[in-house]
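Course assignment 3, question 2. Fill in each field.
Student: A.L.
Task: Predict the tertiary structure for the chain below.
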Amino acid sequence: MRGSRRLAVVAITLLGTSAVASPAPYTPGDDQLVLERLPSRPGDPIQRELKALRLAHAGRPGDAALALRLARRYYDLATSDGDPRYIGYAEAVLRSWQDPGTAPAEVLIVRAQLAQYRHEFARALQLLDRALQVAPGDPEALAWRAAVRMVRAEYTLARADCSELATVASELLATGCAAFVDATTGRTRQAYERLRSALGRHPDARATLKLWVQTLLADMAYRVGDPAAAESHYRAALALNLTDQYLIAAFAEFLLDRDRPGEAAALLRPWERSDVLLLLLARAERALGAAAADRHAKTLEARFADAARRGERLHVQDEARFRLEFRGDAQGALALAQENWSLQKEPRDAQMLLEAALAARAPAAARPALDWLAQSGFEDPRLAALASALARLPR
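Answer field:
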């Protein structure tokens, strides 16, 4: 799931730290029941931290502040490592605060984070709206609401949230929020220059905020035709030494697009646990002619099948890419891309729908993405080339 990840990082910085909704997580009746042991190393500080938080929560299950600390930590691990099981753990921790009418704003915001991870965007917006009723002007709720609205292509509403955020948050955070909207709606160069200047004025900004800004700048620089600047921004983000699945995926895609699969593979090899990053690794290995590409493709196919049996649709876009590139199934990829587009409408979703429609020689199926491209004003030579190729297909 990469849905709202780019702008969602905005909300995470404030802490200092696909068509079918997934079913509710299994919650055991006995808190001592072991469902699965996640990989850990002796002395792993993350596992030590989690153990301490779990023990404290078990002793004080009604302590909302403690439950929030544990739930937030689980969410951070899900987004950094790409392991969705942590989302179920976080939801279980917050089960005592299910009623939006009585839950504290902080709980509502975290529950909204968990809902957007599961692609339940309408539910996430309901929770965030309620949080802002409880705590008007809460910067975290505003940032998350802007993030979800961007995924739904609700740009006017997202811009309004960014404007309100400017009154309660730092200049760099507010500028980044507005720049993300502008860069998606036809003002990429202006947004890039404004955000780069803001970053220069805030060298001491917290690392998580700088990571998000550098990643956003990299994307914008590449789309305006400056790959050298894009790579510089990506490497500046990596130099912050923060684990971030979205950053790794974005830089790996950049390397693949620049015909540098060896570097992409080296970046991705430690991340086989993540479906998103494993797919990118398999693509890099296939470009290298490595035997591991077939093994990883089989692993991905098994994971997608398992997710379908569980009713989970967290990686529909990635499954569409897999069907198109590894199985040569243009029609299957197109069906998945259409399903994905019905749920979320970010540039990568549009690109997947355009590519699948082109491969299936079905230009009419690409109409929703083509309409989005024209209406949003989104600037990207790759999407423009796909649109031109579709226009040349016989009707």
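Instructor remarks: Residues 178-240 form a domain with the Serine Threonine Protein Phosphatase 5, Tetratricopeptide repeat fold (CATH 1.25.40). The mean pLDDT is 89.
Grade: pending
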